[in-house]
Amino acid sequence: MPESKKRKKAVYVPPPAAAATRKKGPSPVWVPALMLGLMILGVAWLVVYYMGSTGTPLIGEFGNWNLLIGFGFIVAGFAMSTQWR
Question: Looking only at Cα atoms, what is the longest distance across the chain?
Fold first, then answer.
């Protein structure tokens, strides 16, 4: 009795190695400087708001929006920390 032909399996080709992809270098110097600057500015804004409250010329006009502004600076600093390599 004749034998049937055997099927040839496709050869597995692995994906390209990770070395073939371009690695990102270190972040510029201004990224951590801006990150820390924003965080410190946010904390300073909140401290000045609580210490001076209505007596401070610029900060007193915003009222409770100062909390949002101060925490906004802090959150922007944390967002910059995700870009730091």
Answer: 104
Contact 18, 48 (CB under 8 A): no
pTM for the model: 0.70
The total number of residues written for the chain in this structure: 85
Residue range 10-65, pLDDT digits in tens: 888 888 776 656 778 899 999 999 999 999 999 999 999 998 876 778 888 888 89
Rounded-to-integer distance, Cα 38 and Cα 80, Å: 9
Pick from 42, 48, 47: nearest CA to 68: 42
